[in-house]
Specification:
Blueprint lengths: L11 H6 L11 E4 L4 E8 L2 H9 L8 E10 L8 E24 L6 E7 L4 E7 L4 E8 L12 E5 L5 E6 L5 E7 L6 E8 L3 E3 L2 E3 L4 E4 L5 E5 L3 E6 L4 E7 H4 L8 E6 L5 E5 L6 E5 L11 E7 L35
Antiparallel strand pairs: 1-2, 2-3, 3-4, 4-5, 5-6, 6-7, 8-9, 9-10, 10-11, 12-13, 14-15, 15-16, 16-17, 18-19, 19-20, 20-21
């Protein structure tokens, strides 16, 4: 059921082309506040960019060029909710990767850090989202090439406690990027670039990367490729193949793996690329090394006779609380 003012919270041409839904992982996120305000952040492209680059452009890279913020009052209309601000521009006329956006609670347990990956550089746009304003905190430059092709793959995530960050991108390099995250100032440090093993499919090498997720205890990082799901052990730097297309179905009907998501039940769910699946694969014990992680193909079944399962919802850890020690005050300039 649409809430009051909740329809068409994207640019008209892009919205109409995809029938009101997004095919891209991490292309929107909800950031709730204690006051009952909820920020709804949506990267997209304006109509001019859509016509010139998306509809009639050539090549394989078609970036977003806008980032909007809408504001929802969850208590309006007797609790049914209402969009009280629509599509306020946060970024304009920039090149943004379509996926790769995630948020983490500030150390105060109330505000949010929002990070969004650029498409024309190795930069990450960094925002502090507070109870009443959004502040641009500048660009952070990742010291590694974030090359993409197709640019509908890739993911950015934080560990459950917010101290670790990781990202993948749909590149022929097959890289995993990690860093430490400071919840006080939103800074990423101690970047690492990790080579993901190249594996084979019936059609050739599976050398890109798609989804990424930390295990609850942060020891393991799970990475999905188009046809494989891998586990990386941060203690001994070893890789283990958790599952592949062969454990899922025959190659001709394989949907492809996409983004990953750690749920509140401590299970990791594996999204699908083509989106014609009636089930999602599950990692039931992500803290277990190698086969002890208990990978289960098609273990989350759709309960609908017509519904299909594709992307994992873009959900940060909403339950992450405040740390005991506080941060120093930060000098900020509001965007809105």
């Amino acid at each position: 059921i649409l809430i009051d003012g909740g329809d068409s919270l994207a640019t008209p041409e892009y919205y109409a082309f995809y029938g009101g839904h997004s095919i891209v992982p991490q292309s929107c996120i909800f950031l709730p506040m204690d006051s009952g305000k909820i920020y709804f952040m949506t990267p997209t492209c304006n109509d001019t960019n859509f016509a010139n680059v998306w509809q009639y452009g050539v090549g394989t890279k078609f970036p977003f060029n806008m980032l909007y913020s809408s504001v929802i009052d969850r208590y309006a209309n007797g609790g049914a909710g209402k969009v009280v601000k629509r599509m306020q521009p946060i970024l304009e006329n920039v090149e943004l990767n379509k996926p790769q956006m995630m948020a983490c609670k500030h150390r105060n347990g109330k505000d949010w850090w929002l990070l969004k990956m650029a498409a024309d550089s190795n930069n990450l746009y960094t925002f502090l989202v507070t109870q009443d304003s959004i502040y641009f905190k500048g660009l952070q430059r990742m010291p590694y090439q974030n090359t993409t092709y197709g640019d509908v793959w890739g993911q950015m995530i934080f560990s459950r406690d917010g101290t670790k960050w990781a990202a993948t991108c749909s590149s022929n390099m097959g890289k995993l990027f990690t860093a430490d995250f400071n919840r006080c100032n939103g800074e990423l440090t101690n970047y690492q670039q990790i080579q993901v093993p190249e594996l084979m499919t019936p059609d050739g090498p599976d050398n890109g990367t798609a989804g990424v997720a930390y295990s609850p205890n942060k020891r393991f990082i799970y990475v999905s490729k188009y046809a494989h799901v891998l586990q990386y052990d941060t203690q001994d730097s070893t890789w283990f193949t958790v599952g592949d297309w062969n454990s899922d179905t025959v190659w001709a009907y394989f949907n492809g793996f996409q983004n990953l998501g750690l749920a509140d039940n401590n299970k990791i769910y594996v999204g699908t690329y083509h989106g014609f699946a009636k089930a999602l694969n599950t990692i039931n014990n992500p803290d277990g090394k190698a086969a002890l992680c208990n990978y289960c193909p098609k273990c989350l079944q759709s309960q609908s006779s017509w519904g299909y399962l594709k992307n994992i919802p873009c959900m940060p850890n909403y339950e992450l609380g405040a740390m005991v020690d506080s941060c120093f005050p930060l000098a900020v300039s509001p965007i809105q």
